[in-house]
Amino acid sequence: MILPAIISIVLAASALHAAEFRAGAATSNITPDLGSSINGGFQDGKAAYIHDELHARCLALDDGTTKLVLVVADSCVIGRGIFDEAKKMVHEATGLPMENMMMSATHSHSCGTAQAVGQSEPNPMYQRFISRRIADGVRRALNNLAPAKIGHGVVDVPQQVFNRRWKMKPGGIPPTPLGVTTDQVKTNPGINNPNLLEPAGPTDPQVSFISVQTPDGKPVALYANYSLHYVGGVGPGHISADYYGVFAGRIGELLGAEHQDPPFVGIMSNGTSGDINNIDFRGGQAKEGPYGRIKIVAEDVAQAVAKEVKNVKHEDWVPLSVAQKEITLGLRLPGKDEVEKAREATKQSKLFPRMETLEQVYARETVLLADFPIEVSAPLQIMKIGDLHVSAIPAEVFVEIGLELKKRHTPTFTVSLANAYHGYLPTPEQHALGGYETWRARSSCLEVDASTKIVAGLEDLFAKLK
Questions:
Q1: Which of 34, 127, 137, 433 could serve as 58's disulfide partner, Cβ 3.0–4.6 Å?
Q2: 315 and 350, same domain (yes or no)
Q3: How far apart (Å, rounded) are the C-alpha atoms in residues 60 and 221?
């Protein structure tokens, strides 16, 4: 005799597997005007030349019950207001819950300014433009939903990632722009610096990726994740999507996905790369002209991924789910005396209100931080795609954090700069070593234990999604 409860379970399982899995992808152009601000440096840049267009690249997934959307936008950093506005527009137009969308920035340093950072200020019209274009891209991806199959994989590309924080010989670390003399590491110490001892942390060589195909095996989209800060080496005043954009195009070529209708969409998201870049400070890399290193990195990564896609098992259907929560994080803010001293230092600039020296730049940061709240709300999110977990953290996450999450929850990867922006996220251990990523500024002001709280919050979400 078959019990009614068992019959119900069997029928429910049959209904789930009878559901049709669908996917859709699209891009939306977010290139700024010539003359626009370019952020990512201590001095503001101005767009004088469009080398390659910037995009928001969108992937929509639907298991018949739940829809999820992943978006990666070509920008150095994007604040929560822009992302939330885009999500709100999508929700109002389609009914898709805002928490079912994961949006992140690539961290290319040759894009239009979307959020105030360094001495760059965003144009409100460009901010609204980005929100609208992201929303349009998501809606187009949803409109493109069609029967599909999905798989995920991992491949190592260790030769393009290096820890940029170095322990140095005695006397090899100068005082910080804030006058601190206790730093034990130096960020970007210079190639073949005679004071180099050893990197202060590890790297993550893995490229994780999600591959989406039509039922008959034609590529629809590929969403990748690599823990590499950015590459750089573009021309002066150039707007460029950096290696993220080159990868997006090259992976389509390698998969034979040119001239499709709708077009194939390649996507590269930023992993946990807060302390990782592409420079071998021990030397050994040939000097490249503009875009030379970008092309090398993109080619290496795309070739490795394209080869590994052939080994991925694509499923006709997988379940989708998502969990999100807000956590409160404290900020490291200056005292009244520090602010007054900093205000006097800014007045020493001959180009006031623009700052000339690093000391003046950080003095200005101190003055601006005086108006910040004592704490912020940070969104944490995990999407579950079959057995794969994709975590989202709204910061420039140190690689140690991503490696720990991978160790605990394989298969998983983490998207940095996602859904909001709260600056660098070192571990407490890396905080204790000092270095550029810990110097107090608007891009580095989270409390020392912020990463501990974020990981604990993500663990809650992992448990919820079991």
A1: 137
A2: no
A3: 10
Query: In the sheet that 185-187 helps form, which strands lie side by side, from edge to edge?
Result: 185-187, 165-168, 196-199
Number of folded domains in the chain? 2
H-only helix segments in 185-258: 242-254
Q: Rounded to whole angstroms, how far apart are CA atoms 106 and 415? A: 10
| Contact of 446 with 331, CB cutoff 8 Å | yes
Q: Tokens standing for 428?
A: 């407490």
Domain limits at 339?
334-369
Q: Are residues 392 and 362 in the same domain?
A: no
441 within some domain: yes
Residue 191: both structure tokens together: 């190639």
Mean pLDDT, the chain, whole residue set: 95
* C-alpha 411: how far from chain center: 19
Answer yes or no: do 323 and 347 share one domain. Answer: no
Cβ atoms 391, 413 nearer than 8 A:
yes
Residue 1 lies in a domain: no
Report whether the peptide linkage leading into residue 353 is cis, meaning its omega lies within 30 degrees of zero.
yes
Is there a single domain that holds both residue 29 and residue 117? yes
The maximal CA–CA distance of the chain, rounded, in angstroms, is 90
Residue 217 and residue 365 share a domain: no
Tell whether the model's pLDDT for residue 85 goes beyond 50: yes
CA distance 202 to 399: 7
Same domain, 119 and 221: yes
189: Cβ–Cβ under 8 A, 6 or more apart, which residues? 166, 168, 172, 195, 196, 281
Per-residue pLDDT reduced to its tens digit, 103-138: 999 999 999 999 999 999 999 999 999 999 999 999
Tell whether 427 and 365 lie within a shared domain: no
